[in-house]
Specification:
By secondary structure, the chain is an alpha+beta fold. The protein has one domain: OB fold (Dihydrolipoamide Acetyltransferase, E2P) (Beta Barrel). The chain is 17% helix and 48% strand. The protein has one helix spanning 2-18, and strands at 24-33, 37-41, 47-51, 57-60, 63-65, 75-85, 88-98. A seven-stranded mixed β-sheet has the order 3-2-1-6-7-4-5, with no helix packed on it. The longest helix is centred in the first third of the chain and has 17 residues, at 2-18.
């Protein structure tokens, strides 16, 4: 009986870990960008840093571009997830979408 309950608890815990957490959304103007990171300034004036990795999708007008194609001042929306590592907590950009000029 104990083995069955323990097995059920392990399966239940694995199911909770597998659930997708929605991405956090940030909007702001590009302050700096490189192949590995981007910093934006949001509407409140705060600078927010994101890591860029090989899975990050960067889009402009429904076309995929490289992060190096972004320019300082571009208005972007970033979908990001929080990760934890040796350096602490950080945000990883999953999607970066350049917004059309107003």
């Amino acid at each position: 009986m104990t083995v069955r309950v323990l097995g059920f608890l392990l399966i239940s815990a694995a199911g909770l870990v597998a659930q997708k957490v929605p991405l956090a959304t940030f909007t702001g103007a590009v302050q700096s960008v490189s192949k590995k990171s981007i910093t934006i300034q949001n509407d409140e004036g705060n600078l927010v840093d994101f890591e860029i990795n090989s899975k990050t999708q960067v889009m402009r007008e429904k076309k995929q571009i490289h992060s190096e194609d972004l320019k300082t001042g571009d208005l972007v929306t970033i979908g990001a997830r929080q990760e934890f590592g040796n350096a602490g907590q950080y945000l990883v950009a999953v999607t970066i979408t350049v917004m059309p000029p107003p």
